[in-house]
Design goal:
The protein is built from 7 helices and no strands. By secondary structure, the protein is an all-alpha fold. The N terminus is likely disordered.
């Protein structure tokens, strides 16, 4: 694998300055990075926090590379961010990296969850607890919207990508279609359209 400290090519092809990537992370960095994601995302918004930490703070990936990984993670069964942690770890350090990233994502949060669960079942009937959780849900919704706008900015110059996203949104939100058929139909269509072809540059 090539050295990650080099300058990457511009994602949009408009001649803007290349984005400087940090050196390829080791196992300890993958563990602490995914642990930072897990501990930052109280109430949800894991994808948004992961993008902020992996792309903006640690500069392991470009935004385009991160969105590619996020798409792959969402195509596989299981929690998206667990899949994303495995993807990031494997991208840089193979199987040991995937295990290190997975441990960072799960080990400490799981232990905290077990401890908080014991406390929650003792106090969950208090009205103040319900109000607190309602505030956390609102914050999680804001983080999810933030991630959506980041993706929109990445593809705002691609009408087909916007059309596909709009069609999936209508199918799921308006027509209440099941997720699996929507993925099985839209996924292959999108991959077939964006598959690299001779004489055609990637979007």
């Amino acid at each position: 694998m090539t050295d990650r400290s080099r300058f990457s090519a511009p994602a949009d092809g408009d001649g803007s300055a290349a984005e400087c990537l940090a050196p390829r992370p080791g196992l300890a960095a993958l563990f602490t990075g995914m642990l930072q994601v897990a501990l930052s995302a109280f109430g949800g918004g894991l994808s948004a926090w992961s993008q902020r930490i992996v792309v903006e703070q640690r500069r392991w990936m470009t935004n385009e590379q991160f969105l590619t990984g996020l798409t792959v993670a969402r195509l596989f069964p299981g929690p998206n961010q667990i899949n994303m942690a495995v993807y990031i770890g494997a991208e840089f350090q193979g199987l040991p990296g995937a295990l290190a990233a997975l441990a960072g994502m799960l080990l400490v949060p799981f232990s905290l969850l077990m401890a908080l669960g014991v406390v929650y079942f003792q106090v969950h009937e208090l009205p103040a607890v319900d109000r607190l959780l309602a505030g956390v849900v609102a914050a999680a919704a804001g983080m999810a919207l933030s991630m959506g706008f980041k993706i929109l900015d990445q593809y705002r110059k691609d009408p087909l990508a916007l059309a596909l996203a709009g069609a999936v949104l209508l199918a799921l939100s308006v027509f209440h279609a099941r997720l699996v058929p929507v993925v099985l139909i839209s996924g292959p269509l999108a991959m077939a359209w964006y598959w690299p072809r001779q004489g055609r540059s990637s979007p």
